[in-house]
Known about the structure:
Elements: E1 3-7, H1 12-22, E2 26-30, E3 43-46, H2 48-56, H3 60-64, E4 68-69, E5 72-77, E6 82-87, E7 99-102, H4 103-116, E8 121-122, E9 127-132, E10 137-141, E11 146-149, E12 151-154, H5 161-166, E13 174-185, E14 196-201, E15 206-211, E16 217-224, H6 238-248, H7 256-261, E17 265-266, E18 270-274, E19 282-283, E20 286-288, H8 303-321, H9 325-353, H10 357-374, H11 379-383
Parallel strand pairs: 1-2, 1-12, 2-8, 5-14, 12-20
Antiparallel strand pairs: 3-7, 4-7, 5-6, 9-10, 10-11, 13-16, 13-17, 13-18, 14-15, 15-16, 19-20
Helix pairs in contact: 1-4, 1-8, 2-8, 8-9
Bound molecules: flavin-adenine dinucleotide.
Amino acid sequence: MKRILIIGGGIAGPAAALAFAKAGIEAEVFERQPCPADETGVFFTLGSNGLDALATLDLQEAALSHGFPTPAIELRSGTGKSLGISRIGTTRADGTSSQTMRRADLYSVLRDRVITEGIPISYGKELVSVNDSLDGVKATFSDGSSAEGDLLVGCDGVHSRTRTLIDPISPPPVSAGLINYGGFTSGMDVDTEPGTFRMIFGDRAFFGYAMSPDETVWWFVNEPTTATSAASVPTRSDAELRTHLANLFRSDFGPASDLIGAAQDLSRPTLTHLLPHLPRWQRGRLVVIGDAAHAPSPSSGQGASLSIEDALVLAQCVRDLGISSVALEKFESIRRPRVERIVKAAARINSNKAATGTSRRIRDTVLPLILKVSGTRGLEKTYGHHIDWLQTITA
Ligand SMILES: Cc1cc2nc3c(=O)[nH]c(=O)nc-3n(C[C@H](O)[C@H](O)[C@H](O)COP(=O)(O)OP(=O)(O)OC[C@H]3O[C@@H](n4cnc5c(N)ncnc54)[C@H](O)[C@@H]3O)c2cc1C
């Protein structure tokens, strides 16, 4: 019986364990954190393509019981000028569209199903090294323990250890030049309908907000930065953070300052890292998926969705081609063009968010035209993507 070692129990890891189980292949998940991360992270969008992939794992209903549908974004300049509407999903045959949800909820949905299926998850297991041979792969963890299997799947996120074990000179992730913050505010009226995200290119930073059906406003801030590592992001107390963020938007149109000031729940800052192009995704019995292979900026709204898609396609390739270089190469050749196209498009959005001075004025003039012309072009390609689980993958 083949055994897969899955490194990382975030989003891609549990999704991969479930996809392998569906293919009849045994897997075990090894997570660095000492315990489940039920409360961490803020929120993200699960695209209609991500929901479609979850449906294959029979998890769509569970996921849709959290968060709320957000099929569109209304973009505005810092002066309040409407720049246009951008759709962030297609409507699927069952009427569902992209869903904004707390990261912790999607994480719990996946993790709970892994437990129900009897797939083991071990915590406090930080991968440090591997021994990859013709007979199998041995993973060694920082606590000195080890595990043996036939394939090791690195689902260990944007700062992946597996990636450097595949290729010690693999390019490191780069800072997107944006610090992310997020929060939740209830008891405040805002001028949007549930389901429409409004996003504002402010003078100093980018602000997005949406009203959930229970009338809590979910919001986030992207602040341009020259910081290149988490250590260089300024440390602030909660009160200092509130003042700093509210000040960023004091001269802008919209409710940003008020929402930040009244927030019940405020996340700590995180520096966004991107991994635009990884030359090698696999070597021997090692392969990376999800953010470990291709981290798009959160502006793509695709990080979680692409990870779940990867999980399905990798399990299909191994199911049909066995644990072999042919299977891993096939996986990479199916996935690479799609994810790199999406990562590239998201990088363009990021540079718009960080624009200042003249480039900001050009953006505010050109963006409405781009949104008008692009319409639904590319939308179907990204969000309408469907993985046919029953399709046999051939070499
Ligand atoms: C705690 C947390 C909170 C997040 N919050 C948000 C958010 O609010 N909004 C957003 O857009 N994105 C967030 N993300 C990122 C988002 O989950 C990913 O972009 C996307 O879902 C792809 O998931 P992934 O499983 O590839 O990577 P991740 O979700 O980053 O998961 C990687 C997992 O691997 C584990 N790991 C790392 N190194 C090792 C190692 N050496 N050995 C064993 N395990 C290891 C990590 O602890 C983590 O659990 C968050 C990620 C994490 C880890």
